Amino acid sequence: MRQFSYTFQPNSNKATVQAFNAHPLVNPEEFLSAVAIGDEIKLHALVDDTQPVETYEILIVGTGQVVPDAHVDRLYKVGAVLLHGMYGYHVYFLGQSRSNQEAEVEVKPAFALKLEWKADLDDEEASEFNRLNADIDSFVGQHEDACELLMTEDQDKLAVIFFDERYRQHPEFIKLMLDVCANTAVQEFSLIIGEEIDL
Question: At 57, phi and psi to the nearest 5?
């Protein structure tokens, strides 16, 4: 890795996209910086100089200039500089579209607890059904960032889906599993690992 710099001339009339060639930039959304030198802007970057050169783009915008809408979700702020002590310019790295990044993120289930209730419950089983249902709702509510609850329309089957494998060793999950095992209203249950969940 090496620290390199690249020089740009801003346009005083409008925002401009400027391309430059560089070895692959290392975390350009975080590691770029800009300084003013005379009437030029110097961009400093950490690069992997063992790899072939690629083409990158930055956007230089003077204070008050219009930023093209097409670029907004690709902008990563590098910094602001002052030329000649009076002209402010803002430097942005044009990276991957944020909307594309969000579309590519897919959180997959790590495992799931799936259970089916008995069809006809006596009074004791109905009480057990209500208690365990309340415990499951409470558990999912307390850990909603790590799991979600799926249930069939007639509520005879449910699955608690977990997105973090470590929850299999979580004390509260182990307690929940023991409650499921002992509950008389449960017809059958299973722990599904790394498969698509289908109720």
Answer: -135, 145
